[in-house]
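Quick start: read one record
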Amino acid sequence: MFKIKPLVAALLTVAAAQAMAADHTSEQRQNGVNNVAEVAQSFGSSNMAKQVQSGWGNDAMVEQTRSSYSSAMQTQDGSFNEADVAQNLSVNSSSVQSQDGHRNNASVSQRAVVYSSADQRQDGSHNVADTEQNGTYGVEAFIKQKGDGNAAASYQFAASGSKTALYQNGDSNDATVNQSFSSSDRALVDQRGGQNDAKVVQKWSVGSVAEVEQVGTGNDAYVHQTGLSQEAYTYSSGDYNDLTVYQSGKNQNAFVYQQGNENHADVAQKNNGNTANASQYGVGNAALIDQDGRDQIATVDQRGGYNDATVDQHGRSNSLDFDQSGIGNTLAAVQEGTGNRITGSSSIANNDVDIVQDGEYNLADVNQFGYGNDATVSQYGDNLRATVAQNGLGNEALAVQTGAGNNALISQTGFNNMAIVTQH
C-alpha cells in the first residue's frame, strides 16, 4: 500500500494553498542570535512581506489573509523587539514598522481596508505603538517615538480620508487618537518631554481637525469632537498643565494656549459656529468656557498666578473679551439672549468681577486696577449699558438694571469706596 511521506504531504499542502493564492512575495533577513521571523500569506494575490532583523531575540510576524496588492515591511535593530502585522481583506494598503533599541513593541492591524497606510517608528527602549484600521478607505496613520517608555495608539474605524500623526520625544509619554464613523479628519499630537498624556477623539465628524502640542513634564490634554467641521488647536508649555476641549454640533473653533505651570483650561461648545479663545501665562491659572448657542465668541487672557475665569454663554451672537493679570483675580460671567457683550480687565491682585446679562444687545464694561476691588453687574432687558472703572483698594460697585435703554456709569478711585446703582 502506497503511503505519503510527511515531507511529500507538506509539499502537497503548500501546492494546494498556492492554487488559491498567487504572486505573493516574501523576503526575510536576519543577522544576530535567537531572532524569529514568520510570514503567513493565504488566499488573495500580489502581497509583499519583507522583514529585516539585526540583533538579539527579536520577534517579527506578518500575516496576510485574503488581501491583494498589500505590503508589509518591518525592520528591527536591537534586542528583544517585537513587531506584528495583520492584514485581512485589505486592498492596496501598506504597513511599515521600524524599531531601533530594546524591548520595543509595535503592532498594526488592518482589516477590510482599501488604500490605507500605517507607519510606525520607534527609537529607544520599552516603547509601545499600536495602529488599528478597520473598514477604512484612504486613511493614514503615522507614529514616531524617540525615547523610553512611550506609548502611542491610533484607532481608525469606518473612516474615509482621515489622517493621524503622533510624535513623541522624551520618556513615559502617552498619546491616543480615535477616529470613527468619520471623514477627512486630521489629528496631530506632538509631545516633547516626559510623562505627558494626550488623547484625541473624533466621532461622527466631517472635516474635524485637532492639533495638540505639549512641551514639558506631566501635561495632560483631552480633545473630543463630534459633528461637522469642528476644529481645535491647543498648546501647553511647562509642567503639569491640563486642558479639555469638548465640541459638538457644527463649525466650532477652540484655541487654547498655556505657558507656565499647573494651569487649567476647560472648553465646552455645542450647537453652531461658536469660538473660544483661552490664553494663560504663569502659574495656577484656570479658565472655564461653556458656550451653547450660535455664533458666540469668548476670549479670555490670563497672565500671572492663580487667576480664575468662568464664562457661560447661551443664546446667539453673544461675546466676551476679558483680560486678567496679576494674582488671584476672579471673573464669573453669564450671558443669555442675543447680541450681548462683555469687555474689560482686572490687574494687580484679588479683584473680583461678577456679571449677569439677559436680553438683547446689552453691554457691560468693567476695568479694575488695584487690590481687592469688587464689581457686580446684573442687567435684564434690552440695550442696557453698564460701565465700571475701579482704581485703588477695596472698592465695591453694584449696578442692577431692569428694563430697556438704561445707562449706568461708576468710577471709583481711592480706598474702600461703595457705589450702588439700581434702575428699573
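The first helix runs from residue 6 to 20.
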